[in-house]
Sequence to fold (92 residues):
Amino acid sequence: MPEMRFHIRWLDGSRDACYSPTLVIKQHLAVGQDYALDEFLALTRLALGSASARVQERYGFPCGRAEAQLARIEETARRQEPGTVHVEAFEE
Fold:
């Protein structure tokens, strides 16, 4: 499975390079788009959950790195003020 990173800019201006074990993130987020924080969280939960399920189908266990990435995203989101998250780039 081709893994990738998606680069985001948080509301406070900080940046993260986030991991996805598959390219499925491209079906949920678009480069150059701004997402309300709640929408961004919903989309990344859906995308990373789907990616982890694909790993489980193929290898028999969910993707721990995708689950850990989602936990980091949710933790960072808790520290943010309401606003938008910007998707800067995809890196395969």
Notes: Strands lie at 4-9, 15-20, 34-36, 84-91. The chain has one domain: 4-91.
